[in-house]
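Hi there,

I know you've been waiting on this one. I reran it after we fixed the sequence typo, so this is the corrected version. Both the input and the resulting structure follow.
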Amino acid sequence: MPIESVSTEQLIDAIQSAGTEASELMAGTHAAREQAITTSRQIIRFSANSIRATHRAEYDQARDLIAEAAALRARLEEQRDAHPAVYYGGYVEDALKEFVEAHATLAFAEGSRLPTMDELDVGAAVYMNGLAEAIGELRRIVLDLLRGDDFTRCETLLGIMDEIYAALVTLDYPDGVTRGLRRTTDVMRGVLERTRGDVTVALRQRRLEQQLAQLNEKLP
């Protein structure tokens, strides 16, 4: 194939055109990035507030806050095809992880259905990281229930924590695939074991109190 000869002026024109085009494209990417960062922060805030409402057993408010986060999330979807580098830059996935965590915490707390990753339209890594983080929220719920002597519910939630952890440890893939899930799983193992210890101590103390009460009833 013959080489096409061009003049110096044509080369300069090509360079200038490339610079102009690159500037326009980068300006668009920059604007999309700034918008994505702002929107992601808002999603995180609404999701965190939803989790707080769930801990107060204000489930309707928690759902309303999740709906606010979902509306913001719809804005980000518009950028997925136009600016994939922005969408998959990290901060959007962090926001979606919090979004999943809010859904999961609400579902576990009130005993409602857990949305699937398809329903939430998130990837496997985002979904499982969100579930992993929910273990920490479940620990807080369990401790609150222990203070109210609701041991049956505590054991139920501890079983859910066990199931989440069991699913997490099967995902033995590189961090580039799981988005750091292995590290989170290691942290949540400690959270799970501490919670198991707290529940076990509380149950033993309850049995001891019951035995003492029975003994007192038998004494003259």
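Quick highlight: The chain has two domains: 10-111, 123-220.

Best,
R. S.
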